[in-house]
Write a structure and sequence with these properties.
heterodimer; A: mainly beta; Folate-binding fold; four-stranded antiparallel beta sheet; 6 strands; B: Ubiquitin-like (UB roll); six-stranded mixed beta sheet
Chain lengths: ~80, ~1000
């Protein structure tokens, strides 16, 4: 189970305190889940109620980073565009 | 003779853990037996000479205790009776308690006479995979087959009453989790703790030390057990160490999460347990995990190797040393490692007769071998057991051994009578928990077992689990594990001290990775050479599976059942991997093994649930009015509990629904609509925001009016409908039907925060703040005129909305349109609602005002042909399918627009919502009933649609149904047939507006 830190309110909590909103894609973009780094929307559901972005490795579950809406970071090491 | 307890004063080394002054009575299959405090259930059964504990799952062969630990495949019992019954427990893991009631599993009708044992004679009929072939036809008979198979092949009986025990969950954090409290685990804990790290050590057994008590030798100048005691005491006193015993790590998960099941109170009645839970489930987060989970002794694989009386050599030694139990009096030991010699020495000291040691190795040359040999013990080297014979539940009576160097020749076989055969195939590391994190283990041919391969960062395997079996190696490797964990956390700041204490121990001769002996057996014999004793999988079964194309480990597992038992193949995984390549299956050294998944050993559902059961399972939402509905039938809808109907005394539910419907059509009914969402959207961008969110144009709604709107998801499917009212220039109120409040405001919030964040919008979910009371029926204007307040609804039209004061409280009034009649929804502050509800009932008494529930509302909507979100839309229905295409905006770019334009969503033959009127007016087809065109058509017939809602309409005095039908809009007036329990009933496709089109001609 993932341990996630909300970039808005800075709380670190269990995955079950958050809610995953699926892939972080722009409207009209058709990207699918893949092995490797994936970017997702997450909601700090039991916390501040903010949506934020999170990059996660879909195989080893390492979290590479998270960001507030509109501040999407450049490619992470190992990530393909 | 069978197993027994040795006399008290035989040797002080034996029976270390039991207190002979504290006898405990318990029962096994109803028979009264006696053990001592300190016994496990397994040792107490052995001390009482109990040989057969269970019948095997497939062939119902008698089976006895094989091991002293979690790897025992046979000693699966259920404890307790009635509601306290716990199935699938391992007798080796249950501490003996006074009054413990134990029963065998899988023996029907009884352990001694087992009808299922006849199955063994039928074994040629049951090759692996037989269940896939034999019971296929006829399809209808499968239910009968399944019932019979379950009875024969079950794993115990689940209790049929709620579990009265208490369970609790604990969350904890640590730097290092050490799994296993043997010598390696203790050394690892000491190393990590000396760095100042917060260390958590979990040991599955009730004691620390693992199997250190099976060995001589000295650490730091003192006997191993004394070193264990000293280290444990030191760790217990340290403030940064938490020792947890009788606590099994059942699973490892991502980001350092470990789930640990701690046994707190033993299996006694809950009232005696006081305030203590039976088990405590720890959810521990650790930055590093050291697996010091030890190793399992491998059994030998040879024909008839599963009889009661056949036991692992080291386990037999531990039963003697710990509990003073000898497994028999006339013993043969078959070994491929030095463990057999250690056990022989002990058993001889305890007075047992070791007839022969059979060593599989060609030329053993270790110190232990020479010591035992010089003592005059009869030893056959380069030999192996090739068969056994026995007497049913009394177990083994003799063993046949053969010389391994002469391939086949009966002359070189000899038969020895014995009551016990102890076997050792060397050790197999047990780092399987690493597999929970996706690590693959690699097969070591020298060892004949899996070793930890590429493990994730922060996970360290140490000690015997890492293949370091000898005392000195194990303790040193444990220390290394602790140091590596510290280095993982502290980086360069960690000190790098090695294990400094001196270790004296005998060096073992390497064991031979024999595994199995298919080379000196016939195919018939191989069918009786068990690899996985618990699931009755033999070498012959594996051969068949390979021959039939199921030779890959994952296929083999499903086809034969290998490793699928409650023990998850602890005793079989290594042997099976060694044997498989020889049979032509996938090569073992390509690290092919099946996936290891939690739980490592079976855990109770109660422990998983913890306190979240009964009313605490999940919260129940109630409206401000629910407490007034004591006489109603309350039903769950999502988290809500809402009144379905208000039956009067003696009235059936259906009659209550019809009465309530008639009341609304002919007079006036009131309905608690508080569970519907009320979302306030304000800000200068509110109109534009709602235009984006809704498929219907709502941004230009005039102030003081409302509009019905549909909300779609990105794919273009309807997810919600509701009424959008404009309160002011920059303020809108969205009200939806009952039941989905959380999702629509969450949906709004998501888009507001992500793609529409530039708009000036504030979203407030006011659902809890307002109670909503819906008044419906021709008498609504009359009742409203009797309510004091300043909202004038006399001029209300279908899209009116007003705010004001009602009955002394601020209120909102909305003309809603669910029932296709006069209808007003009043919102009043939650606190004022009960009084206002009672006021309405009182004020309308003379005009017959009555409450109505969800069921009547449903029926009213059906009469009006209005779709219901939970029934007509299943996430694949568009506004056009519902016949509501004119609600879709032609201009604005709303969420779902591009989805709606996809070709698949505009095909003319999509299923449309239509009405279905059966020829038989009294027949109500249940939702889900299929619609077909021609009952004469041979099966499979073409299905053109299905019923979504149905019910009897008291207004139209006939049953009505809504259905989704292929291209339904084009087939209005056409004939279809509704399939109900195999019969076709004629019906006509109609428009959905039943009230406007169906004549009341009954």
């Amino acid at each position: 189970m993932l341990l996630i830190t909300c970039p808005v309110c800075a709380v670190t909590a269990e995955e079950t305190e958050f809610s995953c909103g699926g892939l972080h894609v722009q409207p009209g973009e058709t990207r699918r889940y893949a092995r490797g780094v994936v970017r997702e929307y997450w909601l700090c559901a039991a916390g501040c109620g903010s949506w934020f972005g999170l990059a996660r490795h879909s195989v080893n579950q390492r979290i590479l980073g998270s960001w507030t809406m509109g501040k999407e970071p450049p490619l992470f090491p190992g990530e393909t565009a | 003779m069978t197993s027994s307890r040795i006399p008290k004063d035989k040797d002080p080394r034996f029976g270390r853990l039991i207190d002979r002054d504290a006898p405990l009575a318990f029962t096994f299959n109803g028979k009264k037996l006696k053990g001592f405090a300190g016994d496990t259930l397994a040792s107490a059964l052995l001390a009482n000479g109990v040989r057969t504990l269970a019948r095997s799952v497939k062939y119902h062969r008698p089976r006895g205790i094989m091991s002293v630990g979690a790897d025992d495949p046979n000693a699966i019992v259920q404890t307790g009776t009635g509601d306290l019954r716990t199935p699938n427990q391992n007798a080796t893991r249950i501490p003996l308690e006074a009054g413990l009631a134990v029963a065998s599993q899988n023996a029907w009708p009884s352990l001694g006479f087992d009808a299922g044992a006849l199955l063994e004679r039928a074994r040629p009929l049951m090759p692996p995979g037989f269940q896939y072939k034999a019971f296929k036809r006829p399809l209808k008979a499968w239910r009968a087959y399944e019932k019979a198979i379950r009875k024969i092949a079950g794993y115990g009986t689940a209790p049929d009453k709620p579990d009265p025990d208490r369970y609790e969950h604990v969350n904890a954090h640590a730097d290092v989790l050490i799994v296993g409290g043997g010598i390696a685990g203790l050394a690892a804990a000491e190393a990590a703790a000396s760095e100042g790290l917060k260390v958590f050590l979990a040991e599955a057994a009730p004691r620390l030390g693992g199997i250190a008590d099976a060995y001589e030798g000295r650490i730091d100048g003192m006997p191993v057990l004394d070193w264990v005691r000293r280290t444990a005491a030191k760790l217990a006193a340290a403030e940064n160490v938490h020792l947890l015993v009788h606590a099994e790590v059942s699973g490892l998960y991502d980001h350092g999460l470990a789930v640990i099941v701690e046994n707190v109170t033993p299996d006694t009645r809950p009232e005696e347990a006081g305030n203590m839970p039976r088990q405590r489930l720890w959810k521990l987060r650790a930055k590093a995990v050291v697996l010091a989970t030890g190793a399992f002794e491998k059994p030998l694989v040879f024909p008839e190797n599963d009889r009661p009386g056949i036991m692992l050599a080291t386990s037999a030694r531990l039963y003697l040393r710990r509990y003073g139990v000898v497994p028999g009096q006339k013993i043969v030991i078959a070994t491929s490692s030095d463990e057999g010699y250690r056990t022989a020495t002990d058993l001889a000291a305890a007075g047992a007769d070791i007839s022969r040691i059979v060593d599989l190795r060609i030329a053993p040359d270790g110190a232990l071998f020479h010591m035992v040999k010089s003592g005059g013990q009869s030893i056959s080297v380069a030999s192996a057991p090739v068969s056994t014979r026995g007497k049913g539940t009394r177990g083994i009576t003799d063993v046949t051994i053969a010389n391994r160097l002469t391939v086949d020749g009966p002359a070189l076989r000899s038969v020895m009578s014995c009551d016990t055969l102890l076997v050792s195939g060397g050790w197999a590391p047990a780092p399987m928990l690493a597999g929970h994190l996706g690590a693959r283990l690699s097969f070591d041919r020298e060892l004949g077992a899996f070793r930890p391969g590429d493990v994730p960062k922060g996970l360290i395997v140490a000690g015997a689990a890492n293949g370091k079996f000898d005392l000195a190696l194990a303790v040193g490797d444990g220390w290394r594990g602790g140091v590596e964990a510290a280095r993982h956390i502290l980086g360069a700041a960690a000190r790098e001290a090695g294990f400094s204490a001196a270790v004296e121990a005998t060096q073992d001769d390497p064991a031979e990775a024999i595994g199995s002996l298919p080379d000196i057996s016939t195919p018939e014999e191989r069918l009786r050479a068990f690899v996985d004793v618990q699931t009755d999988t033999t070498v012959g079964d594996m051969e068949i599976a390979v021959r039939e194309g199921y030779g890959a480990p994952e296929h083999l597992k499903r086809y034969t059942g290998l490793g699928l038992g409650t023990d998850q193949g602890k005793s079989s995984v290594a042997n099976a991997a060694a044997i498989l390549p020889r049979l032509g299956g996938t090569a073992a050294d390509s690290s092919a093994h099946t996936t290891f998944r939690p739980p490592w050993t079976p855990i109770a559902f109660g422990a998983i649930a913890g306190a979240r059961r009964g009313p605490l399972f999940r919260p129940v939402r109630t409206t401000p009015l629910t407490h007034l509905f004591g006489d109603a039938i309350l039903e769950p809808l999502g988290l809500w509990r809402l009144p379905a109907a208000f039956p009067q005394p003696g009235e059936t539910r259906e009659n209550a629904i019809r009465r309530e419907v008639r009341t609304v059509r002919g007079g006036i009914g009131i309905f608690d609509a508080s569970a519907g969402a009320k979302i306030l959207v304000s800000g200068t961008g509110a109109g534009e925001f709602l235009d984006r969110m809704s498929a219907t144009d709502v941004g230009d709604t005039p102030i003081g009016t409302s509009r019905y709107a549909l909300f779609l998801n990105e794919e273009g499917f309807v997810i919600e409908d509701g009424i959008v009212a404009r309160l002011r220039e920059d303020r809108f109120l969205v009200s939806t039907g009952v039941g989905r409040a959380a999702s629509l405001s969450g949906w709004f919030e998501r888009w507001h925060q992500t793609l529409l964040r530039d708009l000036d919008v504030f979203i407030v979910d006011e659902t809890e703040r307002w109670a909503q009371i819906l008044l419906a029926g021709p008498q609504v204007p009359e009742l409203l005129s009797r309510i004091p307040g300043d909202i004038d609804i006399s001029s209300f039209t279908v899209d009116s909305f007003a705010e004001g004061d009602v009955n002394g409280a601020p209120a909102r009034a909305l003309a809603s349109r669910y029932t296709a009649g006069a209808e007003v929804e009043l919102s009043i502050p939650a606190g004022n609602a009960p009084a206002f509800w009672n006021f309405l009932l009182e004020a309308g008494r003379d005009i017959g005002v009555a409450r109505f529930g969800m069921d009547a509302m449903q029926r009213l909507r059906l009469e009006a042909g209005a779709f219901d979100l939970d029934r007509e839309t299943d996430g694949t229905v568009t506004p056009y399918d519902l016949g509501l295409g004119d609600l879709v905006s032609s201009e604005s770019d709303f969420i779902g627009r591009s989805g709606l334009e996809r070709p698949a969503l505009t095909r003319p033959n999509r299923r449309h919502l239509v009405g279905v009127l059966l020829d038989d007016k009294m027949l109500t087809p249940p939702p889900g009933s299929h619609l077909i065109l021609d009952p004469e058509e041979p099966t499979p017939r073409r299905v053109v649609g299905h019923i979504t809602t149905s019910g009897y309409s008291p207004t139209l005095r006939r049953s009505l149904a809504l259905a989704l039908v292929s291209a339904g809009e084009k087939h209005l007036g056409d004939r279809v047939f509704v399939m109900m329990t195999g019969d076709a009933h004629g019906a006509e496709i109609t428009v959905t507006d039943f009230l406007g089109t169906v004549g009341d001609d009954a």
